[in-house]
Design goal:
Number of helices: 8
Oligomer: single chain
Structural class: alpha/beta
CATH class: Alpha Beta
CATH superfamily: P-loop containing nucleotide triphosphate hydrolases
Order of helices and strands: HEHEHHEEEHEHHEH
Strand content: 15-25%
Largest sheet: 5 strands, parallel
């Protein structure tokens, strides 16, 4: 364990940023939630890319139904990059929040304080080189298309107010966007996690890496003025 801490310190001397991506419905958010259960809230900060969809309040409700939310143009990458950079430099941020029913950004923000470990999660996370470069460890959550469809239907109906027909009519677009933008980013991943949160070995590896980083932080001598 001591040797692992030394290696981790040499590679990730500052705050540790872990990027987690994968297709829509792959289970990446579940992976994040599973990992978080092992740590106090103030030790791991999380930045969800879904909160960084562009505000579409200037569009009429009927026009918003035609937005392709799986295309890079739907996201505000500059703001996400800036916030992730600020967290890595030890600054707190006010993360946006998004209303998936109205497809608009809410007025409320979420205060996120810096932490020794930062997890960034989103379907198009690795399509932006700036964001990839900020991620010290890059994970790709892989899942079978059929499994992703089932999760997408359940999520969009329960959380985004869509019916089955609406979800299925969108899936062709989701599939094309996955093949065009998401799947190619798998080559940037340090680790590919099949089966998502069901992959206990992969979850254990991520948890152990974070634990080592937190132990490293706790071992630092206190600075007195």
């Amino acid at each position: 364990m001591e040797g692992s801490i030394i290696i981790l310190h040499k590679i990730f001397g500052g705050m540790l940023a872990i990027g987690i991506t994968g297709g829509s419905g792959s289970g990446k958010t579940t992976v994040v939630k599973k990992v978080l259960t092992y740590f106090p809230p103030n030790r791991v900060a999380v930045l969800y890319m879904d909160s960084y969809y562009k505000d579409n309040s200037h569009l009429k409700p009927a026009e918003r139904t035609h937005i392709n939310f799986d295309h890079p143009d739907a996201f505000e990458f500059d703001l996400f990059y800036r916030h992730l950079s600020e967290l890595k430099s030890g600054k707190a941020i006010e993360a946006p929040t998004y209303d998936f029913i109205t497809s608009t950004r809410k007025r409320e923000t979420i205060h996120i304080a810096p932490a020794p470990v930062i997890i960034a999660e989103g379907i198009l996370l690795f399509t932006d080189k700036r964001i990839r470069d900020l991620c010290d460890i890059k994970l790709f959550v892989d899942a079978e298309p059929d499994d992703r469809v089932i999760r997408i239907i359940k999520r969009d109906m329960e959380e985004r107010g869509r019916n089955v027909q609406e979800v299925l009519s969108r899936y062709e677009v989701v599939k094309n966007m996955h093949l065009q933008f998401v799947e190619p980013t798998k080559r940037f991943a340090d680790i590919i996690i099949p089966q998502g949160a069901e992959n206990r070995i992969a979850i254990a590896m991520v948890v152990d890496t974070i634990r080592i980083k937190l132990q490293q932080e706790e071992a630092k001598p206190e600075v007195t003025l």
